[in-house]
Input
Amino acid sequence: MSEPDAAETAPRTTRASRRRERTKSRWLRKLAWAMVAVLVVAIGATVYAYFKLNGNITRISVDDAVGTNRPTAAAGALNILLLGSDTREGEGNTNYGDGSWEPGAHADTTLVLHLAADRTSATVVSIPRDSMTLAPPECSATAAKSTWIVRQWNKNYSLGGPGCLIRTLEELTGLYIHHFAVVDFNGFKGMVDALGGVPVCTKDGIKDVRANLDLSPGRHVLNGEQALGYVRARYSLGDGSDLGRIKRQQAFLSSVAQEATRTSLLLRPDKLFGFLDAATQSLTTDESFSVGTMQDIATSVKSLGINKIKFVTVPTRSYQPDPNRVEWTEGANAIWQALKEDRPVNSTPKPKPTPTPTDSSPLTVSPTKISVTVINASGQSGLAASAASALRVQGFANVGTGNAALATQPAVVRYATGSKEAARTVAAAFPGATLEEVAGLGATIQVVLGPEAPAVVEIPNRVGTDPLPTPSATPSPSTTIEERSADQDICS
Output
């Protein structure tokens, strides 16, 4: 048989090629549509998740409560106020009593989360709920600092909500708060359960009827209900103080960070959605703190190791009028100053410029004609008495002393209208002091000495020649503040 020529084979080959191309094309189209379908489903799921989570959150405005006279925010750094509310209202919260012993919701837990501008470190500051601090009367957004009253910290929340706390915190610390978030009992339990439980370590065991908690010594994995009892337990442990509870809360948060890392929470969409859904179900935030904003923040810290997350507590001492309450010590100012400067709490502070006089004109009022009250707001015992002695030697005939809650500035000289010249004479004794006109002081000049207050120096128009006495008390330098790292063993 003779071989077929090219003319006979060409059509057959072309037809087969065309069939193969058509088959290939159909499969490519099917694959493309399948990919499109997957993409649509993925986008749909993402959109659903976003709107679902965003819709869970309750948002409130605090602008009116905070006011307009706010600190300057450090460039790039982020400060978030995190609050645990003890409200008995809402689903899942009524099982913990009706709160009739002290009506209203309180900030049972107050945390300030500081994220460094470069996102390489984070500091979580616990503020004891029983702290007695200055606070604006009736949570006023405009009341002058000189009119503030002493009030228990968590009362600010019950009186004026998050806005009152932010207003108080910003004025006391000079720290700008960008966002806030409040979670209640039910939200806390949901987050723990979404993680699959959180490990804790009890050295001595816990049996607390109020917290419905009975744990033997050792390690335990707690579900949401148990975890809530663990972080709230107080009266059956140690001295029953809030400070002991804060240490347990910090250890618990460390364990949460470790567990989230161990389970790759951020890399598991199913677990992450469950966690966020539980968290946002009972979450109240400011109006700009959306899920998108939270996502941006989470993305910015994705490379942050848990060893770079530090927990500290505002240093306190017993509050003299009521030993069941506490007041901040000078160490508190060291914490707030570090965060304002966007540096680790126990790092070396930035050098301060040498104060220069703002007014070099001659003093016109003799110290013999001036009444002065020196207020110790430094946290250092005996500072007002020491300063008063140095003023009396220079001719100030009428010098009194007093005490106040911790101030935020080293030295402030307050005076009433018409007494500025007398105030200038007093301010000359305190290098770097700030002059502040305050209504209602009368003829008496008031000096408020805070942490790092300057020692009294000789004034140009002093009366007498006796040397100034050696200070019997000076503000103590900031000491190292106890820290806990999130990567520490939970039993430590």
Notes: The two ends are 94 Å apart (CA to CA). The first helix runs from residue 6 to 56. The CA atoms of residues 365 and 421 lie 6 Å apart. Confidence is low (pLDDT under 50) at residues 38-48, 88-104, 353-357.
